[in-house]
Description:
Helices cover 20% and strands 25% of the residues. With 416 residues, it is of the alpha/beta class. The protein folds into three domains: 2-60; 63-347, Rossmann fold (3-Layer(aba) Sandwich); 363-407, Beta Barrel (Thrombin, subunit H), CATH 2.40.10.
Amino acid sequence: MQDWIIFTTGRPEFLYGTDCTVLETYHFGDDVGSAAHVECEDPPSTIRRWDRRIRSVESNYDIGLRTALDFVTESNAAVATIEDVRQLHDVPTDGATGSGQTVVAMDSGVDTSHPLFSDRSIRQVDVTGSGSGDAVGHGTAVLGQTTRLAPEAELISLRIFGSEGRTKTNVIMRAYEWLHAHVDEYDVVNMSWGSSEASDQIDRVHDRLVEKGVRDVVAAGNTGDTSGSPATAERAFSIGACTEDGQMAEFSSYNPQGDNPDVSAIGKDNRLAQASGTTMGTQLSGPWVKASGTSFAAPEVAGMVAKYRSREGAVPPKEILTAFERHARDIRGEPRDGAGLADYAATVGRSTEPDEGDGEWPTTTVRVAEADAGDRLTLSDDWFASGEYTATRLSQSATETILHLTPNGTENERSK
């Protein structure tokens, strides 16, 4: 007997009358469809002929986290702190805090005893049967990255991984069923996991979730030139991994045929919250570890998205993706970065009017061959009115200078 996941156009109860043993069913909404976990001796080609309501049949795949549990870094290598994340991606500590937003981490659970969560009430949902907590450490690290960038966002831990850091498609289907059923209870969902190859049906269930107004943030993967679901979903907001100095990590997945990733964030040698009793990554002083993976780049962007929506309101998922892509800082000559490095300040600055009261003055960035701080530039931009802007040097390489611009000829004191 083999176990399969059967995807159907309607509710799957009709499968009880077929030559299979139905173990579990999942419903994602009448407009999305359903699925069932079954045991059967027949191959998929035979199963598909049972009923016209059967959309497809897939194996009950083994699915992993977007970082290997033994994927550690040299103890003497640099550590990318949350301050490095703020600096590279221009995320201010003031202004929007994520208030009014709820972020789900679909992961291995959370250790709520970590100091990062001492004053937080985290809702815990378990679809594995393992209960609350985090026996792996991955989910704690992921939620830690998000909460440090969006400290007032509400958090939900949706546990899909057991103590070994592995799961299967049937558990993923339980989680998607929960996400579809509770779509009005959260705003952003982070997914730092993925299959080894693309699944059309996982991608379909995922895309329908985004169409309901949820902004997903998905780790692109750590396998170089390959990627899998849900990062390969058409509407997925997939995130690559870069180093603290803004270069792409060698492992970050790149799949141009699947338009993956969309943007990139720091995912190499991150300083991460450690769940009690876990050994993921390289031990640092205190309840902290160092680890790498797109797993940790994604929740940084999830924090930026929560912060963005806290400021902008109920922006549709597509508009959020477009804004972050359009204002990302491209790594010149690097095809693996998607649209480039996520730039929170540029994204906010180009999509809003000046508001001195919230601590986040509108900004943009340009690249020029040579320029000095204080140089005046006249530019016309689709998102800003034409006029004079003061340029403040952000960073410089051998080939370009990246400038931070503020309007009306007055340098913003918050600029770096």
